[in-house]
Amino acid sequence: MDRGRLRELWRAEAPAFPLWAPVFLGLGVQLYFWAPVEPALWLYGALLGGAALLAALFRERAAQRPLLLAALGLVILGLCLAGARARIVAAPVLPAAMDATVEGVIREVTRTAAGRPRLVLDDLVIFGVAPGETPARAQVSLQREAHVEGLSPGLRVSVFAQLGPPGGPVEPGGFDFRRDAWFKSLGAVGFARGAPVVIPEEGRPGALRRLRLALSEARAGLAAGLRAALPGETGAFAAAVIVGDRAGVDREATQALRDSNLAHLLAISGLHMGIVTGLVFGGARLALAAIPYVARRWRTKQAAALVALFAATGYLLISGAAVATQRAYVMALVALVAVLLGRPAITLRALAVAAMAILVLTPEALTHVGFQMSFAATAAIIAGFDWLRERGWRFGAADGGAGRRVGVYLLALVGTSLFAGLATGPISAFHFNRVAHYGLLANLLAVPVMGFWVAPAALFAAALAPFGLEGPALWLMGEGIDAIMRVARFVAALEGATSGVPAAPGIVLTLITLGGLGLCLGRALLRPAGAAAVAVGFAIWALGDARPAVLVAPGGGLLGAMGPEGRALDHAKAESYAARIWLEADGDGADQREAAARPGISSAGEARIAELPEGWRVVLLPLGQPAPEAAARLCAPRTIILSAAPVVPPVGGCRLIAGEELRRLGALAINLERGEPRIWTATEAAGDRFWSRAAEGGAEEPAFGAGG
């Protein structure tokens, strides 16, 4: 291709540059998270000053390439925003585990992966910890279901708990909870050793606190009313989608929704916010148009948009304003403001504005799977239908009778599910290592039930509740929820409904994401380039390196080794979270008990031994083992000994990692490379960042840390 033709194709891409603005901003944010060490404050000033100096020195060339300069500026801005945000949310982190009484105000009532109730507390007092060293927020899991009864956000409680710093990744390069915790100002996690006690507060709380208490009481009352009117999982599902209370949804129902790719229906996200605002907007516009006086004198479309905006704001507040709901609200807000200004509401430009707003306010959202999937789905749907319209397809009001209109609707529904599934499928598989093969079928059956049955019935119930007439509407909503659950269980029970996929390196998601954006936002040059990037990403995923031969949990709590039947584990119960993450990342559908029964790990007394090729072996000595004697007995050439207890290096030619060193290195991954073992540590993979330093007591005080 000659240079002139290339320039012509590039000029065709220029009008779409505003759509790429959040992509360049996000690239800067991602560069911050990719950095192996925490960028110093002077670096941000140097980047901003350097960019300004280059623009001044090369004004003429910059004027000739303004888009290139703007793209560079957005990348630098994204990097600076992420660095600033990391300092704004900074708060103390507990340096070590401790048993203590903690007091705090309940911010959220959530659930652990095992289904246990969990409290997120702020405004903390931890007895035995100085105020200046007290974390801004703590997360405490409760022992029993009964312990959460009567508790709701806004109440101040006291509980005796075992607390510690947020945990690191369970394998090198894996999900680092410490990073998530840092951006939530969460400096302590643990579990209660007894039931929480509500503490009556003296004095009158402030206005903001009173509002939070009132909203919390309203949410709790609504959730209790829904569960009373719709017993069992029906009421629990209703409470989840209306007020964000997922406490009553049991594990079996949740798993069925996941295996059928319908778990997104439980989380209040863009789908729910879009349905609510769309129904309110349509209903308000229809009602206003039915009044001749209003229809002649008012702009009913803009008036309906204002009503929908109030409804979306109310839904945000009553649902608990979780992060995903806030993100959905911003997207709805942008769309409704576009209607108020007389602009098209659902466009790629509106989506770009919403993405920019979220990345500016919370840059860390870029790393969240909810952000990635919601924007990917919306962009793919809009771009997909635009592409079809360019080829003569029409999805508006159809002529030819009711049959044709139904056909157009069904075709649009299939297209929506197909485009969204193609966009979110790779992201879901990357993060969760699982593919739901019949997700399209499940969504085609269940999403219309949510949009045209459950949501309208819920809105009717809300409108009739002040008059005490909500019963029939709630019953109708419950029937729709039951229909969704029947679809979920039917699809989840199909043979081959799900399969596991092995974990992929981060570059895979980057290539697939940028390639997908090229397909959605590109014109002439970037579409084929995007398709190539997606293909390369999948090729790396398919042909990439095998999973680690040996994995060791932080502190030596669990050993996993690849055997003839898959990864074998040395324990059927211990370190269940690490075991689950390892097996999922292997793409292995076995549970921990099944993996513990596999061949691949042998025993020598209490020691556990994993064999590697060429005569190498890894020996794990658990805590409590008479480590010096065992290490001396097992020490031999081509042997790596890992001991949770301190050990004096024995004579015998073995490699030893023990005691404090093993704890400091975190999780380990061991592979054989060119006949020699390569030990990759979680500490090495995490780098020197605020969140990785904090638990070691070595975090520098951020320049303007306040705790978010």
Describe the structure.
The strands form 4 sheets. The protein has a 5-stranded mixed β-barrel with strand order 1-2-3-5-4. A 5-stranded antiparallel β-sheet has the order 11-10-9-17-18. A 5-stranded mixed β-sheet has the order 12-13-14-15-16. It is globular. It has 708 residues and is α+β, with helices and mostly antiparallel strands. The protein has 26 helices and 18 strands. The model has no long low-confidence stretch (mean pLDDT 86). Helix content is 53%, strand content 14%. The two termini are 52 Å apart. Helix 10 (270-289) packs across helix 17, helix 15 runs antiparallel to helix 16 (402-432) and helix 16 packs across helix 17 (439-464).
How would the blueprint of this fold be written?
Elements: H1 3-13, H2 17-34, H3 41-57, H4 59-64, H5 66-88, E1 98-111, E2 117-126, E3 137-141, E4 156-164, H6 177-183, E5 186-192, E6 197-198, H7 207-229, H8 233-243, H9 251-259, H10 270-289, H11 292-297, H12 300-318, H13 323-340, H14 348-361, H15 369-390, H16 402-432, E7 434-436, H17 439-464, H18 471-492, E8 498-500, H19 506-521, H20 526-543, E9 550-552, E10 559-563, E11 566-569, H21 576-585, H22 592-596, E12 601-604, E13 607-611, E14 617-621, H23 627-634, E15 639-643, E16 655-658, H24 659-665, E17 668-673, E18 676-681, H25 682-686, H26 690-694
